[in-house]
TrEMBL record:
Protein name: C3H1-type domain-containing protein
Organism expressing this protein natively: Absidia glauca
Domain of life per record: Eukaryota
UniProt cross-references to InterPro entries, sorted A to Z: Znf_CCCH (IPR000571)
ZnF (C3H1-type) ranges: 140-168
Domain C3H1-type: 140-168
Length: 419
């Protein structure tokens, strides 16, 4: 197989010349578009070789490159179709053979031991005493805590591991500090400069905040709206519970995997409403015992339909869809695009909060503006906003909701439904 390289003259064309079989003993990601694996060959020589996978030379697509990284897990036995690296400098002055691969590894024997695989040191063993941090600073390993120790309370390299292994109260302190640091870093690296919310509410409040936004922002902008909502991929039904009981908006949950709804879950939802909508705090230093507040609309209950949103659903429930004023989906996984397409087809308003993209399953998706693939949540949001609204008019818009995590809502009010 030959792939043409148009990226730069630094790269040659790729040609696969050999098949190799062996166990992945180490994997190292150099950056987003390049990673290496060290393979212990099963035949003929029992040698170790290095195989690189890259997409910065156009020898493979970004999606395939990501899939290769996912499949090439240390411990797996694999079969690879390899060839000389497209960058002739790779492999020079090495004591081992360096190959490149541009196709998905075939897993011949997966690593299925419940114990974690202990990787070999890398073939290129430039042992460093520091680790580059997210902000570019180098931090000495001896000042950091071993992440295996923190998460699994064991380290298979205890004797030689350069990181700290605290015990007793120091362990608890180190773990707390590590969790806090990761949360902070996550906040910084996922910071969206367009998001107006700086001190956001916890992710656990997402259903309440979405329901409140529907109640205070979206529904008042809809004409002839009786408030019948179709909450697709609603999971346990949190959003619909808030819509019905807290805001008096009737809602139907379309969800194939119905969950149990224990009493503690109902109590938790009611407490969240009390605390975040009514401002009553359970933790208040209150001498008098306080009765739990009832729901404002205790008699409006969500309806649950244990089914998928698909073509059959649309065909079998024309009356329900006719009565529906608004289709919604919070972190609706594979249902996100079908919700948007169904709403556009019916000319009904929608509001979805996209999260997972399922890029591999949807390779047909392409951004109209750039022609690029849809791989990230931001791509998916753009892709949804680029959809045609047909003869219904109106503009597909976005807004940010005030909670941590994927918090951008994509919504549409067709002209005929707009106040
Ligand atoms: C990440 S969960 C989100 C649940 C809930 N909305 C929440 O935010 O807690 C995604 C849900 O989508 C459901 N789902 C996936 N595809 C669907 C489809 N085509 N129709 C209805 N539900 C679907 C799954 O069963 C799953 O419960």
């Amino acid at each position: 197989m030959t792939t043409s390289s148009t990226v730069s003259s630094r790269f040659h064309n790729f040609t696969a010349t050999d098949w190799i079989d062996g166990e992945i003993r180490h994997r190292r990601k150099l950056y987003k578009k390049l990673f290496f694996i060290d393979i212990h060959l099963t035949s003929p020589s029992n040698d170790k070789v290095q195989v690189l996978f890259r997409c910065d030379d156009d020898s493979m697509t970004t999606v395939d490159h990501q899939d290769c990284l996912r499949l090439a897990r240390p411990g797996h036995h694999v079969r690879l179709h390899v060839g000389p690296p497209t960058d002739p400098n790779e492999g020079q002055d090495r004591t081992f053979k360096v190959w490149q691969c541009t196709t998905l590894p075939e897993i011949t024997k997966p690593y299925d031991d419940p114990k974690p695989f202990i990787a070999d040191p890398p073939l290129v063993n430039k042992t460093r005493e520091t680790i580059k941090q997210w902000d570019g600073q180098e931090k000495p390993k001896k000042d950091m805590t071993c992440k295996y120790w923190l998460n699994q309370r064991q380290c298979h390299r205890l004797e030689t591991c350069p990181f700290q292994h605290p015990t007793g109260p120091d362990f608890e302190k180190a773990r707390e500090a590590w969790v806090q640091e990761r949360l902070e870093i996550r906040k910084i690296i996922t910071l969206d400069p367009n998001d107006p919310h700086t001190d956001k509410k916890p992710h656990a409040l997402r259903a309440l905040i979405f329901a409140q936004w529907i109640h205070t922002f979206l529904i008042p902008r809809l004409r002839h709206c009786k408030g019948n909502v179709l909450d697709i991929a609603g999971g346990k039904g949190d959003v619909s519970m808030f819509l019905c009981h807290a805001f008096g908006i009737p809602s139907t949950v379309v969800e194939p995997n119905l969950r149990k709804q224990p009493n503690y879950w109902l109590t938790r939802l009611r407490r969240l409403m009390e605390k975040h909508i009514n401002g009553i705090n359970d933790d208040d230093d209150d001498d008098a015992p306080r009765m739990a507040q009832p729901w404002p609309y205790p008699d409006i209950h969500p309806t649950f339909m244990p089914t998928l949103l698909d073509d059959a659903f649309i065909q079998h429930h024309p009356d329900l869809l006719h009565r529906t004023d608004l289709l919604i989906g919070l972190h609706a996984d594979q249902a996100t695009e079908p919700i948007v397409d169904t709403a556009l087809r019916l000319g009904k308003p929608f509001a979805v909060v996209p999260c997972c993209v399922f890029g591999r399953e949807n390779l047909h998706r392409q951004l109209a503006t750039t022609g690029g693939p849809v791989l990230t949540t931001q791509d998916l949001i753009q892709f949804l906003c680029e959809k045609e609204t047909g003869g219904y008019g109106g503009k597909i818009e976005t807004a940010y909701l005030d909670f941590e995590g994927k918090n951008q809502v994509v919504y549409w009010i067709p002209s005929s439904h707009s106040l």
